[in-house]
Amino acid sequence: SKEHRFAAVDLGASSGRVIVGEVAPERLSLHEAHRFPNQPTRVLGTLHWNILSLYQGILNGLKAAARNTTHPLTGIGIDTWAVDYGLLAADGTLLANPVHYRDTRTTGAAEKVAETLSSQALYAATGIQHLPFNTLYQLISAQGSPALTAAHRLLLIPDLISYWLTGEPGTELTNASTTQLIDPRTRDWATPVAQALGIDLTLFPPLRHPGDPAGTLRHEVLAETGLATPVPVTAVGSHDTASAVVGVPATTPDFAYIATGTWSLAGLELDAPVLTEASRAANFTNELGVDGTVRYLRNIMGLWMLQECVRAWETRGTTATQATHTDLTALLQAAARATPLRSVVDAGDPAFIAPHHMPDRIADACRRTGQPVPRTPAETTRCVLDSLALAHRRAIDDAARLSGRTVRTVHIVGGGVHNALLCQLTADACGLPVIAGPAEAAALGNVLVQARAAGVITGGLSELRALLHSTQPLRQYEPTGDHSAWDRAAARLGDAQVTRAAT
Ligand code: ADP
Ligand code: LRH
User: Fold this and answer.
1) Which of 263, 285, 303 to mutate to test the pocket of ligand 2 (most atoms within 8 A of CB)?
2) pLDDT by residue, tens only, the chain of 503 residues
3) Cβ(302) to ligand 1 under 6 A?
4) DSSP secondary-structure letter at 303?
5) Ligand nearest to the CA of 100
6) Is ligand 2 within 6 A of the CB of residue 263?
7) Which of left, alpha, beta for 240 (phi over 0: left; psi -120 to 50: alpha)?
8) 370: left (phi over 0), alpha (psi -120 to 50) or beta
9) How would you classify the pairing of strands 409-413 and 255-260?
10) Is 448 buried (19+), middle (13-18) or exposed (0-12) by CB count in 10 A?
11) Which of 298, 248, 180 shows the shortest CA–CA distance to 448?
C-alpha cells in the first residue's frame, strides 16, 4: 500500500510519548505507541531530568511501534522541550545529568550578562524573550564548572536523543533559536553575542534544518527495539513548540495559535522577526520555525500552574473533599460552576516558574493585588484558568499590535485541548472563535515534516495544515459572555504587569 509509518518521539515536561503517524497523500492518522511519565529529581539541591529513564521510555516506545504493525517504520523524528542540554566528553560520554530549566542555578545570571550586554543589545541581536532559564543564562551560570570546563560538545535535549539513537551529532535550528545565541535575521549563530559573553560556540555541532537527514538507527538500537534495518532519523522542528505550530490546522493566514501544555505559548507565525524596542518591552520572543518562519510568541505559565496545584493538594489531601477534587475532570467541573473572574493572577509572572507551594503562591498574588483569595481547589482552579485565558488574550492582542497583523481565529493545540473550560474561557476572553485541536499537534507536526522529507506528501505549511484540517477532529468554541468583564479583570492586573515588562 502507499501508506507510510513515521514515529514521532515527543518529550514534554509532563510526559514523553512515542506516537506513530500513518501518512498517505490524503490520509493522516495517529496511534500512540507508548506514553511514559517525565519525573524530574532533585539531587543535592539541583533539579535534574531523568534523561536515561526518558531514553528508556523512547526505546520501549520504538519497540511497541515495531511490534504492532505489518508495515515497517519509514522514519523517526524527535522533538522535546527547549533550552536544556547535555555536555559530552570527547569520547561521547555524557559528563553530567542534564539540569532542569526550573532549577534556580540561573539566579543572578541576567544581571551578570547585563554587565557586558544591555538587554536592548541582546534583544536586537537575538530577538529572544527574557526567560531566566534560556540556555545563554544556563551557560553563564555554569561557567567554570567542572562539567562545562571538561566538555567537548554540547547537545540540546532532542539532539542528545538523536545522537544516542544514531551516533551522529547535530544542532537543529528551531530549538537552537531558544538558546538566545541565534540571530533570527541570518538564522545562524549570533557570534558577537557569544564572543562578548565568553560562550564557546564550537561546543555546538553544525546546524541542521527541519527535513535534513540526521542519521540512521545504530545496530544496538535496532537489536533492542526489534526494528528492521535501516531506519532513518530525520531532523524535524525539534523544539516541541515548533512542531506544534506546524501542527496547527489553520486554513486562513489571519490566525493566532496557543500551544497549551505545561506552558502556554501564544502568538503568531511571521515571515520575519520583530526586533523593536516595543517588542522587547512586551517580552515577546522570535523563535525560529519550520520553513523559514518566525514564531512570534510569549511564554505563559500554562497548565503547569494547575498541575502543581493538583500535586500540592494530593500531597496534603486527606479529607474526602480534597480526594474527589484532585480528580482532574471533577475539579474542572467544579471550576466551571465557580464564580467567574473572582480573582486573577499574572500568568506571565516568573514567580510561578519554580516547583512547590503553587496554591500558596497564587493566594499571595491575589492578596497582593487586593483580590479575594481562592478558598477551595475549585476556586483556585477557576482562578488559574481565568488567568490563563486573560494572559492568552493579552499575548494575542500584543502580538497583533506589535507585528501590525489582524487576528480572526485562535487555534488551541496541545494537552489543553482536552480542557473545554479553558478553551471556552479563551474564546470569551479573546472575543474570537477558538478552534481546538489537535491535542497531539507536536507529534503531528513532527510526522508531517518527516513525511514531506521522505516525499510521501508535498507542499508548504498551508498544504500540511490543510491535511490536518481534513483529517483531525476539531472543536469550535464561539465567544460568549460579557466581554467588558475581561477588561475589568485585566485592569486589576494592569500595573503589576507593566512593571514587570519594563524590568
Ligand atoms: P507537555 O507536552 O508539556 O508535557 P501536554 O501537551 O501533554 O503537556 O499537556 C498536559 C496537560 O494537558 C496536563 O497538565 C493537563 O492539564 C491537560 N490535560 C491532558 N489531558 C486532559 C484531560 N483529559 N482533561 C483535562 N486536561 C487534560
Ligand atoms: C514547551 C517548551 C517551551 C519552552 C519551554 C522550556 O514544552 O518547549 O516552548 O519555552 O518548554
Assistant:
1) 263
2) 578 999 999 999 999 999 999 999 899 999 999 999 999 999 999 999 999 999 999 999 999 999 866 788 999 999 999 999 999 999 999 999 999 999 999 999 999 999 999 999 999 999 999 999 999 999 999 999 999 999 999 999 999 999 999 999 999 999 999 999 999 999 999 999 999 999 999 999 999 999 999 999 999 999 999 998 789 999 999 999 999 999 999 999 999 999 999 999 999 999 999 999 999 999 999 999 999 999 999 999 999 999 999 999 998 765 545 555 569 999 999 999 999 999 999 999 999 999 999 999 999 999 999 999 999 999 999 999 999 999 999 999 999 999 999 999 999 999 999 999 999 999 999 999 999 999 999 999 999 999 999 999 999 999 999 999 999 999 999 999 999 999 999 999 875 564 454 44
3) no
4) T
5) 2
6) yes
7) alpha
8) left
9) parallel
10) buried
11) 248
For 287, the grid coordinates are: 523563535
| Residue 165 CB-half CA count within 13 A | 32
Contact 48, 207 (CB under 8 A): no
Phi and psi at 102, nearest 5°, equal -85, 0
Cβ(428)–Cβ(471) below 8 Å: no
- Say how many Å lie between the first and final Cα of the chain, rounded: 58
Calculate how far, in angstroms, residue 302's C-alpha sits from the geometric centre of ligand 2. 10
Span from the CA of 34 to the centroid of ligand 2 (angstroms): 21
pTM assigned to the model: 0.97
d(Cα 181, Cα 194) in Å, to the nearest integer?
7
Give the active site residues: 240
Residue 170 parent element (H or E): none
Asked whether the beta carbons of 410 and 434 are under 8 A apart, the reply is: yes
> Does ligand 2 come within 6 angstroms of the Cβ of 81?
yes
Quick one: which of 165, 145, 391 has its CA closest to 283? 391
Ligand 1 center to 261 CA (angstroms): 5
Q: 416: Cβ below 6 Å to ligand 1?
A: yes
Indicate whether residue 330 lines ligand 1 (CB < 6 A): no
Residue minimizing CA distance to atom 11 of ligand 2: 81
The residue whose C-alpha atom lies closest to atom 18 belonging to ligand 1 is 415
Is residue 253 helix, strand or coil? coil
Is 276 in contact with 48 (CB distance < 8 Å)? Answer: no
For the four alpha carbons of 277, 281, 287 and 292, in that order, the dihedral sign comes to negative
- As for the ipTM of the complex, it is 0.99
In angstroms, what is the span from residue 240 Cα to ligand 1's centroid? 14
3-state DSSP assignment of residue 293? coil
- Which-ligand-closest: CA of 179? 2
